[in-house]
Inverse folding.
């Protein structure tokens, strides 16, 4: 066992393996076992731990040791191989022969299979599992070629001379040399070039030497000819290296200069790295006119480390032999010289043959283009989407894009930053609507689903124009990047965009990708192909169109790495002029290029409907007077039978069916009797009087498959020349459809009072949607004050029904039914049509029509279905489900399977629950607002007492598992009838189950409030002086009510899904009633200093003897009363500052709504604030009478007087701008109560806010009586906390208002102001969301207090009240509609008052043009007004408690 070990483990014997095992410390027992199992070197290399443990019974430790040491041995041998290869003169001739190695056995322990791979190959295979793609070299010796290589692709192996004009190739990895200093690098480069060049020249062969291409298998993981690239810091290093020619060549130097071309630097694309690398190539062209009769000798330069300088080798004559360059030996030299003439002759002949070679056969590019674009069909598919990837368009080519304008383009990946200004986008926008986007636009926010995202970007509605690398004349963040920066910053966005489109937006086969290359391509453009190719699963739907062969080269070299050369060639149309492409493709498009669309007009003519205007009304499919006239004659002749057959086979009718019938290309489309009925209802609608509604509804109810949709569309088709007709597309909100319907009605009409009726077809929509649409249209008509004698809009609803005839009977003047049953007249029509069709088609090809003509006859259907079901899998889940439904419908007509029987039960229970709980609401369409459910109110009214209703609700409480909301209703019912003890019991029962429900806690508080009111009424009726003793009971009840309302407030603030302010309002109401009761006590009311005594009791520790004992439990809460009431008033004021108070109609169907709703909260707050201040101030009468204010008043007393005058909170102050009676006088009185020099006074934060707001309000009402300047108020803001988190929302609001920059501000001052404003907005936004909770924004719309005016100083704050003269004649809802739809903003009075500011939109976000350090996001007040595209805009600026808002946004052209 002491055998000497061979260097190669695979040839070890069993004894040598044992020797090695002993040397690494393996126990003798295991060594002997392995020896007995005949483990030799080959087997050792295949062992794994599982084998050792299972077969040799080895422990885990020694098994792991053997495998680890074995692997180290293999790796060390591999390193020795590499070192050997790197020794001088080893070159390519030295190879280490290694014997074959068996592969590792399987885990099951089966004997290993034998292979014939060396250890080196096994290791290499482990490291490189991916195959390498082949690629072509750069076209030889051609100037101006735009070419590139892709890393890891492989050139054909090095070659020798072939026909002398086809270049031979030599590769040099040059990886180490590229990092050398300038001198060493130049010497190395010159040596390799001159060696190769003279070798080529001497044999008269063209050649290319490539640096940055692997020349051996020396490095594991690479293959021969693999492109790796080298870094090139300075190109002149390589160019200047050729200066060695003069020093290396003794004679005919100029010949070498002429034959050796300057280095070419071909970029290497590497998606895994941002470092730029190149393949450096030198072409050798030994033209016969230069080299004839010559032999070239060279002294190759070498940098000698020993002498640290460049020395020259002995002069040698070199030649290419095969794929190598070698010196001509002395013995061959004579023969070499003698054959110079032969080589010259061969070269001369080769050059002649090159010039005389026949031109390539001309491809039929026209046919190739049409086959690719039509997918082999005769015409391009009308419904197929196209994705366009393009770069800069030459101006001449822009005249030949009619073919593009007629295509259904989903999106364009645009690499020309000037496209919108002067390129393809500019021309496209002249004909179509398109939305400008960036790659970042295609990132889906985490809280958004794909449907919402599609809607946000308006994909499928209008073309999405994606600017991939910069966009000229756009203020947003879309700057042009260099190639490497683009890869670093935008490459990921591109990948996500392509993946989103291919995987989530467009199903495979529904779209085609066209790379339209019209200028030299750059890396980002190529990356787009790299992303689309794998996402689309190959090249099948990818086409490249490139008019220029030169521009195609770089694209081709890149694309061939992803697919084979013939694939790229077959999918590309190269060298065809754009004008030829234009003419060729228009011949295979279904529509004529010159066709135009027209709409009827009021004066009985027509007007042109521009395509880009039509596309702005994207929620409507508009039917024009000349609809389908643009269809080409060729398309009709080819497709008319297919179109007809598809319809009669059961496909939905389309407009082309009617057009073909109308123009006699096919037979007529049968008119059902229902068509005449609908037509009659239409005529009746136009005869109605002017007092009728402006929106008329006609409903078609139809059996599925009975032709209801055909009837509806026939009505539109036959009225398209007299009315403006359109189909409402699904998935659009009623407000958007209404907006577009109004635009369609008024399009190209001078007078909105004189427009044609719009006939809208709405298919398969529920009643709620139709009601919403009708309401939106009616509001729009009323808002515009349109005088109508005929309907402005007719809604033609077409809906499926299993009992259409019953629907028709319910409303015969509005509903029409379409059933499977045919009238006698219809039978005759169907019979004749069927005979005509059966002459041309087999029955199965006109299936639906045959079934219809048979009136869905049972025997016929049964026979047909039996035929259809032959071969179907009757045991599949789907089939069994169909059988079950069919069985159910057979015996229970019109039945269906709900998602679960449980859901159906729950639905029924919800109806029963609503019977007892749901109140009537005018906002929900009821006749009145009720306090209880109509059932309960009816029972109470009928029985003249609540007993029956209480009994009914009590039973319901038990039946509905003691539902706390039934207990709540019982509490309300009891206190309504002054049964307070029972009311208390039921309220506590409800609160016990739902202790954190603010609505139930409110009800509990209301029980005590009503009880308190009843007790006060009793005291008043007794007509005795009020004392502490006889009011103590009422006092305790009031304080209990306050306690409940404060609990209600806490629960409401913690509830993130509901808004319930009732606790705050009720607390103030009860507090005022309590103060009134306290003030009326004999001890306080009738003494000379009674009011002072009362204030002393409520505000200090003092307790009068008269109340000390009787009110002993109440002293603590009563002394806090002024603070708790003030806190509630401030809370209400702040909340009213945020949101509009004229919305939020109670639309809840459940009992979770406040007991009492304050109808006019602004007026209520002003009144209650004044009332509160009155109770706590003594000098109010003097202040109101304009007399001087006593100088000895305390700050608290002044504050209470300010409260009484209406200056105690922001909302009360701003209400002076709405109710202007004595407002100026009151505001001046309020301001007189503040210190004369507020900057030196120690103000509280609320006092500063109220003081500033009073000045702003006074300036709005009386600009001429200025008392302070804007700068004074800005200085006062310095007293707000520096930590913005401690600032009140009102303080932050004032910062945004007062520090808004002015035109005359210097740059530094403006930037400082923007920083203050942006910091305030950041914190306002946080406060807003706390207030907003998770409530839909439509229920809590922001209130805009001021707008930015065109003046300066305080005069630039324009209050909304100033606009009232423009809209005062309208109702609240009409007024809001005018503002939202932008009509009010167009008034010249408003335009004169306000200042427009500039900005831009980016992915639906509005940004302000101004701040330089940080982008300023401005909230749009009306989100639908934000352009769907990324655009430069102008807008008016409003100020809200969420920050500035953008109003009346207009795209800046």
């Amino acid at each position: 066992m002491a055998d000497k070990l061979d260097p190669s483990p695979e040839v070890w014997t069993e004894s040598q393996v044992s020797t090695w095992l002993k040397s690494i410390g393996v126990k003798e027992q295991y060594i002997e076992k392995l020896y007995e199992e005949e483990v030799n070197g080959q087997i050792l290399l295949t062992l794994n731990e599982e084998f050792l443990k299972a077969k040799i019974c080895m422990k885990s430790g020694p098994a792991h040791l053997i495998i680890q040491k074995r692997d180290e041995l293999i790796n060390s041998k591999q390193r020795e191989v590499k070192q050997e290869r790197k020794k001088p003169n080893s070159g390519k001739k030295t190879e280490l022969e290694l014997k074959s190695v068996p592969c590792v056995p399987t885990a099951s322990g089966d004997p290993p299979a034998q292979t014939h791979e060396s250890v080196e190959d096994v290791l290499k295979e482990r490291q490189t599992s991916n195959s390498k793609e082949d690629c072509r070299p750069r076209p030889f010796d051609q100037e101006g070629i735009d070419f590139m290589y892709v890393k890891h692709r492989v050139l054909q192996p090095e070659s020798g001379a072939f026909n002398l004009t086809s270049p031979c190739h030599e590769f040099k990895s040059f990886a180490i040399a590229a990092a050398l200093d300038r001198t060493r690098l130049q010497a190395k480069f010159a040596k390799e070039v001159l060696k190769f060049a003279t070798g080529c020249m001497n044999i008269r062969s063209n050649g290319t030497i490539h640096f940055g291409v692997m020349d051996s298998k020396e490095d594991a993981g690479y293959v021969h000819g693999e492109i790796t690239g080298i870094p090139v810091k300075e190109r002149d290093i390589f160019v200047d290296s050729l200066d060695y020619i003069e020093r290396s060549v003794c004679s005919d130097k100029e010949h070498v200069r002429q034959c050796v071309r300057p280095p070419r630097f071909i970029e290497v694309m590497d998606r895994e790295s941002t470092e730029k690398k190149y393949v450096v190539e030198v072409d050798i062209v030994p033209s016969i006119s230069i080299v004839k009769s010559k032999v070239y000798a060279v002294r190759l330069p070498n940098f000698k480390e020993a002498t640290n300088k460049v020395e020259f080798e002995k002069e040698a004559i070199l030649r290419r032999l095969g794929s190598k360059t070698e010196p001509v030996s002395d013995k061959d030299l004579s023969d070499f010289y003698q054959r110079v003439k032969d080589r010259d002759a061969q070269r001369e002949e080769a050059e002649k043959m090159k010039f005389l070679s026949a031109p390539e056969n001309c491809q039929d590019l026209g046919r190739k283009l049409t086959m690719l674009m039509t997918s082999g069909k005769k015409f391009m598919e009308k419904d197929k989407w196209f994705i366009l990837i393009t770069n800069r368009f030459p101006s001449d080519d822009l005249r030949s894009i009619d073919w593009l304008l007629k295509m259904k383009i989903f999106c364009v990946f645009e690499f020309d930053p000037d496209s919108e200004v002067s390129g393809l986008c500019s021309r496209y926008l002249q004909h179509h609507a398109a939305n400008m986007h960036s790659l970042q636009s295609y990132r889906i926010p985490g809280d958004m689903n794909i449907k919402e995202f599609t809607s946000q970007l308006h994909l499928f509605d209008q073309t999405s124009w994606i600017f991939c690398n910069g966009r000229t004349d756009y203020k947003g963040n879309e700057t042009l990047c260099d190639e490497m920066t683009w890869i670093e910053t935008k490459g990921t966005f591109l990948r996500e965009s392509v993946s989103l489109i291919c995987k989530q937006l467009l199903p495979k086969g529904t779209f085609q990708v066209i790379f339209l290359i019209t200028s030299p391509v750059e890396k980002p453009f190529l990356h787009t192909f790299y992303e689309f190719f794998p996402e689309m699963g190959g090249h099948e739907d990818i086409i490249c169109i490139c008019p220029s062969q030169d521009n195609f080269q770089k694209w081709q070299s890149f694309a061939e790495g992803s697919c084979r050369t013939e694939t790229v060639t077959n999918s590309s149309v190269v060298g065809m002029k754009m004008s030829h492409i234009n003419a060729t493709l228009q011949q295979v498009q279904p529509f004529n290029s010159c066709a135009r669309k027209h709409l009827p007009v009021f004066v009985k003519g027509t007007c042109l409907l521009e395509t880009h205007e039509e596309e702005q009304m994207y929620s409507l499919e508009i039917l024009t007077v000349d609809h389908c006239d643009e269809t080409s004659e060729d398309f009709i002749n080819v497709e008319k039978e297919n179109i007809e057959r598809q319809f009669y086979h059961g496909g939905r009718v389309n407009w082309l069916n009617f057009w073909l019938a109308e123009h006699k290309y096919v037979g007529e489309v049968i008119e059902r009797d229902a068509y005449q009925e609908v037509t009659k209802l239409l005529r009746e609608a136009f005869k109605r009087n002017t007092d009728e509604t402006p929106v008329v509804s006609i409903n078609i109810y139809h059996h599925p498959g009975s032709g209801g949709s055909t009837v509806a569309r026939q009505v539109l088709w036959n009225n398209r020349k007299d009315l403006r007709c359109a189909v409402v597309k699904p998935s659009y909100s009623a407000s958007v459809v209404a907006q577009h319907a109004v635009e369609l009605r008024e399009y190209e009409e001078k007078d909105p009072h004189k427009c044609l009726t719009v006939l809208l077809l709405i298919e398969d929509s529920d009643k709620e949607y139709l009601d919403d649409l009708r309401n939106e249209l009616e509001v729009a008509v009323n808002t515009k004050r349109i005088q109508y004698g005929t309907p402005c809009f007719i809604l033609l609803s077409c809906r499926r029904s299993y009992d259409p005839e019953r629907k028709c009977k319910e409303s015969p003047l509005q509903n029409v039914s379409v059933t499977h049953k045919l009238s006698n007249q219809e039978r005759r029509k169907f019979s004749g049509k069927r005979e005509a069709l059966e002459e041309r088609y087999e029955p199965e090809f006109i299936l639906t029509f045959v079934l219809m003509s048979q009136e869905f006859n049972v025997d016929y259907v049964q026979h047909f279905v039996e035929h259809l079901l032959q071969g179907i899998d009757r045991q599949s889940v789907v089939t069994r489900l169909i059988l079950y439904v069919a069985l159910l419908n057979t015996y229970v007509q019109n039945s269906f399977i709900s998602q679960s029987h449980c859901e159906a039960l729950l639905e029924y229970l919800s109806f029963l629950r609503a019977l007892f709980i749901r109140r009537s609401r005018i906002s929900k369409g009821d006749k009145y607002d009720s306090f209880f459910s109509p059932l309960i109110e009816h029972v109470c009214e009928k029985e003249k007492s609540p007993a029956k209703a209480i009994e009914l609700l009590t039973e319901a409480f038990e039946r509905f598992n003691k539902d706390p909301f039934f207990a709540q209703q019982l509490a309300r019912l009891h206190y309504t009838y002054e049964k307070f003890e029972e009311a208390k019991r039921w309220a506590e029962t409800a609160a016990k189950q739902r202790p954190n429900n603010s609505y139930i806690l409110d009800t509990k508080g209301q029980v005590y409030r009503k009880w308190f009111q009843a007790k006060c009424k009793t005291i008043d009726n007794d007509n005795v002086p009020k004392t502490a003793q006889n009011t103590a009971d009422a006092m305790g009840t009031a304080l209990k009510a306050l306690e409940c309302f404060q609990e209600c407030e806490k629960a409401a603030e913690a509830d993130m899904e509901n808004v319930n302010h009732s606790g705050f309002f009720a607390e103030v109401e009860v507090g005022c009633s309590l103060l009134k009761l306290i003030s009326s006590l004999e001890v306080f009311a009738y003494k000379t200093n009674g009011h002072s005594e009362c204030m002393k009791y409520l505000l200090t520790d003092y307790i009068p003897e008269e109340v000390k004992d009787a009110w002993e439990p109440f002293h603590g809460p009563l002394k806090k009363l002024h603070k708790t009431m003030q806190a509630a008033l401030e809370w209400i004021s702040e909340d009213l500052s945020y949101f509009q108070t004229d919305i939020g109609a109670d639309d809840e169907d459940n009992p979770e709504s406040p007991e009492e709703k304050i109808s006019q909260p602004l007026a209520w707050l002003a009144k209650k604030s004044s009332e509160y201040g009155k109770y706590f101030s003594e000098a109010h009468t003097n202040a109101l009478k304009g007399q001087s204010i006593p100088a000895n008043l305390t700050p608290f007393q002044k504050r209470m007087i300010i409260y009484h005058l209406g200056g105690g909170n922001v909302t009360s102050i701003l209400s002076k701008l709405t109710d202007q009676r004595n407002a100026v006088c009151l505001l001046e009185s309020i301001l007189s109560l503040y210190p004369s020099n507020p900057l030196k006074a120690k103000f509280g934060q609320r006092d500063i806010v109220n003081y500033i707001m009073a000045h702003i309000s006074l300036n709005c009402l009386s600009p001429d009586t200025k008392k302070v300047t804007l700068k004074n108020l800005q200085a006062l803001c310095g007293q707000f906390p520096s930590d913005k988190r401690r600032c009140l929302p009102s303080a932050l609001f004032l910062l945004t208002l007062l520090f808004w920059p002015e035109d005359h501000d210097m740059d530094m001052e403006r930037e400082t102001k923007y920083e203050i404003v942006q910091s305030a907005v950041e914190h306002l936004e946080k406060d807003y969301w706390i207030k907003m909770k998770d409530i839909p924004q439509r229920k809590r719309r922001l209130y805009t207090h001021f707008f930015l005016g065109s003046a300066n100083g305080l005069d630039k704050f324009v209050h909304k009240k100033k606009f009232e003269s423009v809209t005062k004649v309208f109702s609240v809802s009409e007024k809001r509609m005018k503002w939202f739809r932008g009509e009010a903003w167009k008034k010249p009075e408003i335009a004169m008052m306000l200042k427009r500011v500039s900005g831009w939109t980016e992915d639906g976000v509005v940004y302000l043009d101004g701040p330089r350090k940080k982008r300023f996001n401005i909230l749009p007040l009306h989100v639908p007004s934000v352009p769907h595209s990324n655009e430069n805009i102008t807008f008016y600026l409003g100020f809200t408690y969420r920050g500035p808002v953008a109003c009346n946004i207009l795209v800046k052209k």
Observations:
- The chain has 60 helices and 32 strands.
